[in-house]
Amino acid sequence: MVVSVRTSSTLSLDASTWGAGRVIGVRTSSTLSLDASTWLDYSKGVRYLGVPLFLSRNKSKDFAFVKEKLEARTNGWKSKSLSWMGRATLIKSVAQASPVYTMSTCKLSKKLCNELDGVVRRFWWSPKKLSNKCYTPMAWKDLCLPFEQGGLGFRSYESFNETMIAKLAWWVLSGIEGAKSLLARGACKLVGSGDSILVWNEPWIPRLPDFKPVPKASLDIIPCLTVAQLMNEAKSQWNQNMLSSLFDQDTILAIQNIPRWRVNQQDRWIWLKTYTGEFSVKSAFREACQVDQGIEVNAVMKKIWQTQLHQRLKMLLWRIAAGVLPTSDSLIRFLPNLEISCPFCNVCGESVIHLFWECSLARAIWFGLSGICTDHFQPACGVDLVEVIVFPCVDLVDAFGCGFFYSQRGLNS
């Protein structure tokens, strides 16, 4: 691996942004090439949120800073005259709580955990002495027992580290469990050898609901089978007799429509909501929105964003179709004394339909620019009005405006 760094004078590791890619570039005037050994030297001590980004084989050395910080804290407390209860409070609330982030993200070595216990143990029994030797009338593991078992409720660093890692694992498992329903909508096994796919328990038929087959109604005993047992001996095609004995005709057709596989191809998971079969956040988000909200695709709303109009005009059309334009008829609910007459004609109340379709000024603009006679069509809502623009109808166009209409129709298509 080669890291190319361009700098004018001195390279500052604190100011530089380091990543895990193969090439890292920082552009200035001159060029300095770092080989792998030099890169390892630079990577030492680089941390993110107090946790080393690069770990070596010696974890005790990588996380030695945890012990150093703990010793610095306890040494600062030695100059104070603390009661036994004061020392217990500092140990629980500060000493054993300080490295909680590091211990929740990384598994510390047993040696380092024992050393951390030793630092706290010396502070508890002999806070005034600098020597490592002290009189301990009670074992540390007994002090770490709960109150009801005769201890003081101190935490063993090793046990607490395991607990925090278990909490992280629980979050991951809970997240996976919560995402199962979404994954089940698009995750399917791609049939290769078929040896690892259970016929009745796993999704492997894309054209069926839940991608799983349903046994034939006349089947008394449902055998435990793998997909490989549904193929012939050469695994080159399906065993038709086996399929006919287990499934109905619709399921057989769905199985036969599974893409042809290679004999040496392994079974693997694919995501059916993309063309490549690879999972993408975009496709999963689209699937989650469609199923959770149960909203069908609105052709008019979809067409708005497909037109070759300026983005501001698209937003205006969307506001009209969505009914969020602040016209007087919508604001009167909140402002009872608001003047609701149209500011252009002062004849009718200001609404979306009147403002963009029924008003004398709007009628003149429609006819003058595109030859559309507004008398031929009466929109009932904003969606109907926008539909006229994104899906223009020939019946609305006067003979004088046909050329403009067809040009707009071709533009929108």
Walkthrough of the structure:
By secondary structure, the protein is mostly helical. It folds into 4 domains: 3-43, no CATH class; 62-162, no CATH class; 187-271, no CATH class; 299-412, no CATH class. It is 43% helix and 5% strand. The strands form 3 sheets. It has a two-stranded antiparallel sheet with strand order 1-2. Strands 3-4 form a two-stranded antiparallel ribbon. Strands 5-6 form a two-stranded antiparallel sheet. Helix 15 packs across helix 16 (360-370). The protein is flat, with a radius of gyration of 36 Å. Mean pLDDT is 80; it is low at 1-34 and 398-413. This is Reverse transcriptase zinc-binding domain-containing protein. Residues 279-366 form the Reverse transcriptase zinc-binding domain.
